Amino acid sequence: MGALKNSLWAFCLLVTGMVFSQEEEIMVWDADRKLQWSDFKGSYFKTEWAAATTASGISYSFSSFKKDGQLYLDFVVQSEFYPNKSWYRPELCDSIILSHEQLHFDISELYARKMRERLAKTQFTMDAKAEVRAIYKSILKELSNFQNKYDRETNFSRDLQKQLLWNQEIKAALKEEKPSQD
Predict the structure, then answer these.
(1) How far is CA 175 from the centre of its chain?
(2) Measuring CA to CA, which residue among 5, 13, 38 is closest to residue 160?
(3) Would 56 disulfide with which of 34, 108, 113, 132, CB 3.0-4.6 Å?
(4) What does DSSP assign to residue 44?
(5) CA-to-CA distance for 176 and 182, rounded, in angstroms?
(6) Which pTM does this prediction carry?
(7) CA distances from 55 to 52, 91, 105, 137, 162 (A)
């Protein structure tokens, strides 16, 4: 099983623009709540190369109001984990792969924070809906590129030294970035 485990990958499914039903289970990122294998409730795909998949992404909503001729937005941006779209193969997964999957979720949170920051700094026009959507699309592209870089550099969790380095870097970045909603 050791040789087989080394040939399998863990990866993140970045969920973008997907519409979920009201019943869809969603976990919002929380610094005090780490993922557990029991959170991965989806059925795994019959692939030979994947040991686990984390489905995570960023969602947003906003409302607008005018004051003194200026348009203001109240927005909520969150990083979410989708248990029913995430899966793992218990016979192949260990704590290293779980930490790899957690980091995918943590990276989504970093990009949710980046989106909040961009929204807070933007002067919106009466076309705010399109402007917010453009910021969202830009953040999702950056997030996808960063997630792919993470998987490449850690070789999907198989390069333990790189994995540990990424763990430290993302942990430090989460401490630096402000988690608050504007």
Answers:
(1) 17
(2) 5
(3) 108
(4) P
(5) 17
(6) 0.86
(7) 10, 20, 8, 18, 22
